[in-house]
Amino acid sequence: MVKDTRVVNTDYVQGYKVTQTLGLVTGNTVRAKHLGKDIIADLKKIVGGELQEYTEMLSEARQESINRMMKEAKKLKADAVINVRFMTSQVTSGAAELLVYGTAVKLKKTK
Q1: What's the pTM value of the predicted model, to 2 decimals?
Q2: Which end of the chain, N or C, is surrounded by fewer C-beta atoms within 10 Å?
């Protein structure tokens, strides 16, 4: 048994054996910035550099998606989510979906 649910992008958790596969768990969110931030980002595109408004938006979306995936995993009483992957897609102009998914599993500590 594991104290906290772990999230890894590998197919194992070091020091543990997968004893049961509980199934696919997902989390997603669709985000958009308000018009003012879009205008600022458009101006930055002209001179180049990081579009911090969008970096911030995607960071928030990533965290929210992980939280939603973990909520699903906890409903299944999972010890871990393995093989975690992220996917993004543009839903409409100025709005993006961030999806995270993985396999919820039960673990047993190895000797």
Answers
A1: 0.82
A2: C
